[in-house]
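Data availability (excerpt). The following record was deposited with the supplementary files.
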Amino acid sequence: MSSPEPTVLIIGAGTFGTSTAYHLSHQYKDPSRITIFDRWDPKAPLQDKQAAAIDTNRIIRTDYESSMYCDLANEAIHPWFWNIAVQGHFQKTGWVVLDKQGGEFAAKVKQCFIKRGGDYTRDVDREELESKHGVLKGLCKGELGTGYFNPEAGWCDAESATTSFLKVAINNGVKRVTGEITELLLDAKKSRIVGAKTSSGQMFYADKIVLAAGAWTSALLSPMEDLLNISEKDRIERQITAVGRLSAYYSLSESETQSLIDENMPIVVIGGFVDIIPPSQPNRTLKINDLKTEVINTITTSSGKKITAPRLASQSHVPEKLKTQGLSVISKAIPDFTSKNSPARWRICYDAVTPTEDWLLTRHPHPSLSNLTVATGGSFHSYKFLPVAGKYISKVIKGERLSEEMEKAWRWKSEQELKRSGGLEFGAKQGRERVELGGYDGNVAKL
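Predicted structure:
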């Protein structure tokens, strides 16, 4: 008689958690042995949710300097078109990437495409974009180098796509629990992680745990690290940092929205400054992400440890001084539009960022946590992998081998390994300013 399938708790229903639930639900004979936790009720208003994977939109593209991530993105982009779970959420607008003067991202992406068998991009410049799309008038004059257009890229409605993908897993039998996990549980001998506890006091137990909590990973693991006396150099905070980025949302009229749709406006990425995501009629929102300004929220735990985690305030609450800094970046990128329009709302989007911008997808190295799979490190560029990430996470859960390249990129890294380049979002890091959030609103948080 075969052994029963191991029970699994998935903590976090974002990109990695949802994808894991989806893939395991197709692999398990009895998917009811899988439970996924989501802090947010599906019916809760979008603006009240604090998560990276449920925003108005997320960019879908295959463009990477890294051949491994380029291959993965190509694997993922086909389901965005054909998988019924996410079909209809993807808008194929294409995207334009404009490097800063001296930037190499565009050239290296083209080299990667050629190595894969074909470069389907075409060169484009600032003047061409301005002549076609009035909203881009004055685009970052004097600071742009070469650029290209990739017609295969686009964006998706992240909230609806994530919900749709998770619904498939639930329909297959996966249990979904609305609740916030506040504590991981060890057995009496501190030899094995056995489950998790919610803020309401409910206990859930399983054979295997998947921690897919994104920017909240350190906050959940830190107490466990204290219990096990894990040294500073081996703690999760050395592997990831909880980082926030600013998004500004400009409301458009129905006619303004339709005009941009009729112009076939693509996503526009200005290296080191912003990315601009065009609207659809349902959302009528021009979203501009500030790629230059990054914030961290350092908190002090009860044991006196310094870790990074999102603050408890709503992500839509952005300090005025931070808005001013964000506007200075955005206005420099598209001065004409921003001189006539103001954001209707702002958001601080948090993600777990690794020093190399690779995923952290591995079993925890501590012997007492060997049944804990850490799936985090999205680094602001991983939502596009929603259809396929869980395929690889499930292999780690089961103890199956990944390719040598993947294992090297996604493992728990040594100090030396953390210094190398990896799956960088837009190539070399260009002048990002990571600042302490408390300096903007005067708050010092404690856990």
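Summary of structural features: The first helix runs from residue 15 to 27.
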